[in-house]
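How a chain folds remains the central question behind the approach discussed here. In the encoding step, the backbone of a single protein was reduced to a row of integers, each denoting a local shape. We regard such an encoding as a compact summary of how the chain folds. The sequence in question and its structure tokens are set out directly beneath this paragraph:

___
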Amino acid sequence: MSETNHPHRLRRARGFEAPGLRALGLGAALLALAGCTPNAQVPIAQEQTERELVLVQRPDATSQALGHAYKDMLVDAGVSARLAEPAEDPVAEVLAGRADVAVAGSSELLAALGEVPGAKDDGDASGAPESPESPAAPGDLDAAAVNTRLHALTPEGFAVLDTAEAERTGTLVVTAATGAGEKLATVDQLGPLCPELDFGMTRTVRATLLPALGLKASCTPRAIVELTDDQARGVLPVISDAVQVQATTLANSGIQDNALVVLQGSASLFAPEALTPVITTDGVGQDAIKAINKLSAALKQEDLQDINRMVSGRDALHPKKAAADWLADESLVSAP
């Protein structure tokens, strides 16, 4: 059995939602309402950026497409920009001064920026822990709290820009057949079923997901099948029944394209990772800030899945081409 492949120019089916995604949409809506103010003013005096900005993203095709999209937005706004060679830790590249812009998950960014001199985190009224050092522990902070905490930071020499509605938060998926046969639709139903289920996940995800499954779902899987990053970004392990439950992310277009069931309550097992740009403030003007925030405001979850679909499968586009096509589709840049 193979993953469903769709022509890269096929736009999303607006009337279709994979089971479980509708409930997740509420979380995205709450994030949008509780997050930072759109186009929040970054305290930078100069209007124009007078030097080249270097963007950096992870090596996977979806991240590279996002990097090209943000770069093209900057260029369209008259800002000189280029995309650097891929890096496994783009935020570290920015913090080390080897790049100027990276787009990362909100929890990942909160943890990294909490270590920057001058960063402040005064907590919020939610009663969540005040330390910025462990915001990514699953369930410690929900998406809105992470977003609030992240945008309260004031790291010296850097700025956190507007958070997009799109997220690459982890999730658990099963096939419709498994969901129906096991009467499995929510994380709360996993406990008694886990001894009969094989779970697929990467080694990195395993380190936090297994303890969370035990603590929050009383779940000890029958077996853990270790997936590569590329396998986890697709859905072949679960649709081929190599595993019955797969850990992937909400950016994965294969969830919708293969009508997989997203287990409700999965968000409690993963750190929220809404896409958020970080930028150095050295020599940066408001023109660059506005261009980046404009793209983030337009980037919804279905857009991220569209981009993922465009760079996946047999008909995959090069990330640069996928970014250009998506920007044109959304009328975000000037016509060539």
Notes: The chain has two domains: 21-37+49-167+273-319, 170-269. The first strand starts at residue 53 and ends at 55.
